[in-house]
Amino acid sequence: MKNALFTYNPISGGHKIPNELDYILASFQKNGILVQPYRLIDGDKDNIVHLLKSGIYDFVIASGGDGTINSIANILLENNIEMPIGVIPSGTCNDFSKSIGINSLQESIDIILEGKVLACDVGFINESQYFLSTFAGGNLVDVSFSTNSDLKKNFGPFAYYLKGLSEVANIKSFDLKVTADDKVIEGKFLLFLIVNGRQAAGFPNLVNDADLTDGYMDIILLKKCSNINLASIFFKVLSKDSVNDKNVIMLKAKTCDITSKSQIALTIDGEKSELFPCHIEFKNKVLKVFAPQSVVDFNNEARKSP
Description:
Layout: E1 2-8, H1 12-29, E2 33-39, H2 45-53, E3 59-64, H3 66-78, E4 85-89, H4 95-99, H5 105-114, E5 117-125, E6 129-131, E7 134-137, H6 142-146, H7 149-155, H8 158-166, E8 174-180, E9 183-195, E10 217-223, H9 227-238, E11 248-253, E12 255-259, E13 266-268, E14 271-273, E15 278-290, H10 293-304
Parallel strand pairs: 1-2, 1-3, 3-4
Antiparallel strand pairs: 5-6, 5-15, 7-9, 7-13, 8-9, 8-12, 9-10, 10-11, 12-15, 13-14
């Protein structure tokens, strides 16, 4: 029988996981996996490190929003713990899980039981913190922190869109200098996004050709523009249209440096950050994640292609 440590955020998704805990444990147990639940609380990082280094567990499962998944992934990477991570999403946006093709509780359990592992890229900021899906900065970032919890519970990611549109008139630009590999861009911007995968901030297919395994980050820069143009970009993304627009710059790079004279709100996988100015480096295929067979097969075929 295999053993897994199941770390979960008890308040994510309206306390969804505690209500499903017996079902989750039973699903794994009847398939020969003994799961040890671990309720995440502030300040218990050392305990988790100790458990994951004990040699007892074959893999770890993380359940919560993007911030929770980020925290467990950082523990693995910072401590060179070689084991795969299973993801059971229960947050508002679930950007990382959706980027690897996981959309529901049952689907995530089935994927972990299937046992197929994908080696994913991660971003590394100022040689101090990893991120899985998004590092973002700008006044629009404040939307995620000020959105009412009941609104998020009832509308999910759409709550951010509603809040963002209501704040359009108050959004201010800031100066920014971006050095992406050997390309330098300077100007006035409303937002920057460093993306790993197709989805960010609940926007599906934000970068249609994003690849979690190619060693490159996708950089999205939203220029200073009129409120009408900004609203138009919002609606393009909402309708799952291409983000291609004269006011949007999109780049790919392995490393990136970002500086500004302005104070900028920042978020790493949905959680507040103060890592600025920043140097971002992408680490290629360093995090092992349970993923759908189709995603793993697609990656394997892409690697074989010339």
